[in-house]
Design a protein that fits this description.
heterodimer; A: 624 residues; Elongation Factor Tu (Ef-tu), domain 3; Arc Repressor Mutant, subunit A; 4 domains; B: 461 residues; Rossmann fold; six-stranded mixed β-sheet; 18% strand
């Protein structure tokens, strides 16, 4: 039966992935329907009220550079901003913010409502309509059928979600919200494998019951920056976080709850993340530590609710309550609601193509936590890429696939699909082999041109990128061509504690000294400052030039590695390649390649169990 | 990865001693690299300017030392086996020479080829028929297996343990650096730079020690060189023949018969010995013989053990002591005084006569009398000094290369620590090192690094 598609793209779910997916597809020109269980809970921050951080902040900058909204929404609703890792080199600088939870969700909703092509429908999707392994629509709980050319599933933790608090457990996608069932079961009939994962969240506390004078205050930056490359405004006033610690008494009380803990009694089957352990896990695994750090994070400008970062737990509510009151500053603490653990279905991501389309059902895309990731940023960037690629596919255009050397987003998707994941996947900078190239400061240079070419990033964004690049290039030429005499500069050099010069020297040489910064030279040399001021995007361009010059040795080396690998990345492997028929491959390689179906030789080379000699064999068979 | 156009080298003839061996060098810089170690006999020649398909005579040199005299054949892309610039070095077939030439090529910037890599390149450059694909693929698969087996067999003593330890230390170091980068917001204590420096210096020492063991490893793999020296006609060639049980050296009564040197290998109790019969030591006016004598002194310097032969009748203890002093051997060369031609002496006064000489053996090479005492003596030096005291030995040129490149990376890290460069740059250097070491041990993956961090530190707010 042929149905008329009412929408180009149906997005199931309204979390961080769903929002970016809907916005990107609609802005590219697709008609989009967002189906979500509760329209008042769009873009919820279900865990901590914060965005960014190390590696995650870089991802938001990339989303922004590609024309997504996470950076803009974050900037408009933040209550504190810090640039992390400033004591390290620019590749490590990572923006992080605390946000007003309610405003964040509100801002996202307003943003989506401002996009003409998006319609909304409040309901639960209970079934997918799949004909001959092609998706054509969805069925909701009230039996409504909606047809679309493609469907992006962003179900988060809602698929068969099961919440645990102490001995109690009940179905739910978040506390107070229903889980959704049926879809995992239906998809497994189409050949999909599912797994269980676990994550947890700490109790929320009434800020009026805390004694902040007993805690350390953690301020935002004095000169706060922001996430978006657009003209959003940095913060003028900020709210502080506070730091306190658990102690031996806290640990004692928590231990009394272990017998009833869903983690230790075996009621939880899913795998939790090692880098975000529950407090009970921390005291069990690192029993030599007599305290653990906790962050008290405000939930917004106008709320007394606080989030106790570091105290994720699924012990019973009584134990949580008792343990909390042993913490310094928490002597009279009152909970708004207890922490809990949640188990949910995910689909091992090796079942996806690089576009996030599933291998088994055409035009069906998965994005976000459903793919085994964790984190708002990780979810949002998958949503963005799924939205872009779903639109491109139905318009018969080439997909947008970002390489590992182009974006953290590329690293993330390649890792998921090539290696799979058996614990919730979070981004770390160490996952990127080209860390020095993937900086937050150059995300726009790396990605905006690609997005602009697709028609997503605006002309205005592109113009800004061109200005920044022009200024950086002009300055680099200037440094190369311009010399200074000892008399002009020696006073500055001695002030900076570096050797004075005896004869004229190129600015390039001076700037490559670690002690000498661009702003030092600019203040000292009037001709340089006049030159810079004549250029557009002065500040950002100058920063680019300085970074590119100071790190040139390392940047060149990474660039060379990228070029070496690119030969492999460009050799396409077709999905119908019959690995099982190649006896020269090792048996492990045959099995893994058949399962993962890598799209390039480069991707194949990253699959664990596929050796260099297997790769040689493949190359030979490709007749290269 | 192995699909580069960088320059690679490999032995193209079977390993082991042979008359002639061929070493192939292919890649963009094949000519420039070979130029660094090849000196044409006609020193005005520049191989870069010589035409393709030409052959040139000259020397392989390690700085100023001549390693071998060779012929090199030049091929230019695309008209070569691999389709790239290619040079074939035809050298003499001793294992020492083969390994030495490969080592020099590596030091000059080539990389040892991986199994099947020459064929692979030929294939990629369209020099082979597609129908051969399967055969080539099988070859790669099987030669990899064979190479792997060989590599394991080549790991002597504690090599693999020591490598494991080295890898773990590097992993720990890398984890500490990554911890600082990715988890600076966490409540974990970061290693202070002093502790990091101590750890990296330890790694540095370990790498250096392994690299140094390469020359000793080669000795064991390619044979312990034993030089037989002495005055002309003292019976050196007769002794060599007796040891080899075959008439190999030309034996005659005319002094100076062995004008250059002869060598051959004997396996005694599992260890290979390369016996080198040298020209006699005497003042000579014969030009060719003088060259032979010069060569003798070179061989003495290369030898691990020197058999210094004297005639029983014509020698006394003061003479031996005087000759030994004149020879002034390296302290790590072991010398055995061999008193030959005991058959010409009657009575047992002879043992009494040489009793005071250290490490002395009395034989008759001609009648093969008391040779077992001599071989036992030789073996006693080898087992005691070389094998037992150095249980970690690398013998494989590829291991040597991987370790050398790791070391270069580690040296970058050390200078980085001294210059206080920031963590992500240190991490880039250490990753570089780990990649090279991964050639032997298997690469360190990001997952492994993270696993190490999560296992050791309490991460997670």
């Amino acid at each position: 039966m042929k149905h008329l598609a009412e929408y180009d793209i149906i997005v199931v779910g309204g979390g961080h992935a769903g929002c970016e997916a809907a916005a990107a597809a609609a802005n590219l020109g697709s008609t989009v329907l967002m189906v979500t269980m509760d329209l008042s809970r769009i873009a919820q921050m279900s865990c901590n009220p914060a965005m960014g951080g190390i590696a995650k902040g870089q991802i938001i900058r990339e989303i922004d550079a590609l024309g997504g909204y996470s950076g803009i929404v974050t900037d408009r609703t933040m209550i504190q901003f810090r640039m992390l890792n400033l004591s390290k080199g620019p590749a490590m600088w990572s923006p992080r913010s605390q946000n007003d939870r309610a405003e964040f969700a509100d801002e996202w909703r307003k943003t989506l409502e401002g996009i003409q092509n998006i319609d909304f429908w409040q309901d639960t999707v209970t079934k997918l309509i799949i004909e001959k392994n092609v998706i054509v629509g969805v069925v909701t709980s009230i039996g409504k059928e909606v047809y679309g050319k493609s469907v992006i599933l962003t179900a988060g933790t809602f698929l068969n979600g099961l919440i645990h608090i102490g001995k109690k457990n009940f179905g739910g996608g978040r506390v107070g919200e229903k889980a959704s069932g049926g879809i995992s079961e239906q998809l497994s009939l189409h050949g999909f494998e599912t797994g269980r994962m676990k994550t947890g969240t700490p109790p929320r506390i009434d800020g009026r019951s805390l004694n902040y004078s007993l805690m350390e205050e953690q301020f935002g930056d004095d000169n706060p920056s922001k996430f978006s490359f657009t003209d959003t405004k940095p913060l003028k006033k900020q709210r502080s976080c506070h730091i306190t610690y658990t102690n031996q008494d806290t640990h004692e009380i928590l231990r009394t709850g272990f017998a009833d803990s869903p983690m230790y009694s075996g009621r939880i089957e899913g795998t939790g993340p090692r880098y975000c352990p529950s407090i009970e896990d921390k005291i069990e695994r690192f029993s030599e530590r007599d305290r653990h750090q906790l962050f008290v994070e405000p939930e917004g400008w106008n709320t007394v609710e606080v989030y106790l970062n570091g105290f994720s737990t699924s012990l019973s509510e009584e134990i949580q309550n008792k343990a909390l009151r042993t913490i310094r500053g928490f002597e009279n603490a009152k909970m708004f609601r207890p922490g809990y653990a949640i188990e949910y279905d995910y689909f091992p991501p090796s079942q996806l193509r690089m576009t996030l389309e599933t291998k088994y059902v055409e035009n069906l895309y998965f994005a976000g936590q459903i793919n085994g990731t964790t984190g708002y940023e990780e979810a949002a960037c998958q949503g963005l890429m799924a939205g872009i690629n779903a639109h491109l596919k139905i318009n018969e255009r080439e997909p947008l696939i970002l390489g590992r050397s182009e974006a953290y987003i590329g690293v993330l998707i390649d890792d998921l699909i090539t290696k799979g994941t058996d614990e919730p996947y979070r981004m770390f900078t160490s996952r990127a082999e080209y860390r020095l190239l993937l900086r937050q400061d150059n995300a726009d240079l790396r990605l905006t041109p690609k997005s602009h070419e697709l028609g997503l990033a605006s002309d205005e964004r592109m113009k800004a990128v061109e200005n920044k690049r022009h200024t950086a290039d002009s300055l680099l030429d200037y440094f190369k061509d311009t010399s200074v005499a000892p008399v002009e500069i020696n006073e500055l050099l001695s002030r900076l504690g570096t050797a004075e010069i005896k004869q004229k020297i190129k600015l390039e040489k001076l700037l490559s000294r670690p002690q000498v910064g661009f702003s030092d030279l600019k203040n000292e040399l009037p001709q340089l400052s006049a030159f810079v001021e004549s250029l557009p995007a002065e500040e950002e361009g100058a920063m680019q030039a300085e970074i590119q010059l100071k790190y040139s040795g390392y940047l060149i080396r990474e660039q060379e590695m990228v070029e070496k690998m690119s030969r492999l990345e460009n050799i396409v492997l077709h999905s119908d390649f019959e690995y099982l028929k190649l006896p020269s491959l090792s048996s492990e390689a045959r099995e893994k390649l058949t399962k993962i179906k890598p799209s390039t030789i480069g991707q194949a080379s990253r699959i664990s169990g596929v050796s260099p000699s297997d790769i040689s064999v493949l190359m030979v068979f490709l007749g290269r | 990865m192995q699909f580069d156009t960088d320059t690679i080298c490999a032995l193209s003839t079977p390993t082991g001693t042979s008359a002639i061996a061929v070493i192939r060098v292919t890649g963009n810089e094949a000519f420039d690299i070979c130029k660094q170690l090849f000196e044409p006999a006609d020193t005005k020649k520049d191989i870069n300017k010589e035409s393709a398909f030409s052959i040139h005579y000259g020397f392989i040199k390690d700085n100023n030392d001549i390693i071998d005299e060779v012929l090199i054949s030049l091929f230019r892309n695309p008209h070569s086996y691999t389709g790239e610039d290619l040079i074939e070095i035809s050298c003499h077939g001793s294992i020492y020479v083969q390994q030495k030439v490969l080592q020099l090529l590596v030091n000059a910037g080539a990389r040892t080829a991986k199994p099947g890599e020459f064929t692979m390149r030929a294939f990629l450059n369209g020099k082979m028929d597609l129908t051969k694909a399967e055969a080539v693929a099988d070859l790669i698969a099987s030669s990899t297996a064979a190479a792997h087996k060989t590599a394991i067999n080549q790991m002597r003593g504690g090599f693999s343990d020591e490598l494991k330890e080295l890898r773990q230390k590097l992993l720990d170091f890398a984890s500490l650096i990554e911890l600082e980068l990715d988890f600076s917001e966490e409540d974990v204590e970061f290693a202070d730079r002093k502790a990091l420096t101590t750890l990296i210096l330890e790694i540095n020492d370990m790498l250096k020690r392994l690299i140094d063991s390469f020359s000793l490893g080669n000795v064991i793999k390619n044979g312990v060189p034993v030089a037989i020296i002495g005055k002309p006609n003292v019976g050196k060639s007769t002794l060599l023949n007796a040891l080899l049980n075959e008439e190999r050296a030309i034996v005659s009564d005319i002094p100076g018969t062995t004008r250059d040197y002869l060598e051959d290998s004997v396996n005694m109790n599992g260890i290979l010995y390369r016996f080198i019969d040298t020209a006699g030591i005497r003042k000579s006016t014969d030009e060719i013989e003088s060259k032979g004598i010069e060569k003798t002194f070179e061989k003495i310097n290369e030898a691990k053990i020197v058999l210094y032969m004297f005639e029983a009748l014509e020698t006394d203890v003061p003479q031996i002591e005087k000759d030994l002093a004149e020879l002034s051997l390296d302290t790590d060369t072991d010398t055995i005084i061999v008193i030959n031609k005991t058959d010409q002496v009657t009575g047992d006064s002879i043992e009494e006569k040489f009793k005071s000489v250290k490490d002395v053996v009395l034989i008759s090479a001609l009648n093969k009398v008391n040779l077992s005492s001599l071989t036992e003596k030789i073996e006693s030096f080898v087992t005691v000094q070389s094998v037992e005291s150095n249980d970690t030995i690398i013998t494989n040129a590829r291991h040597y290369e991987a370790l050398s490149k790791s070391l270069a990376g580690i040296e970058e890290v050390i200078s980085g620590l001294n210059n206080k460069i920031s963590g992500e740059l240190l991490a880039a250097d250490i990753r570089n090192s780990l990649t090279h070491l991964g050639e032997i041990t298997g690469e360190v993956t990001n997952d492994e690094l993270l696993g190490n961090i999560f296992g050791r530190f309490c991460i997670g707010k």
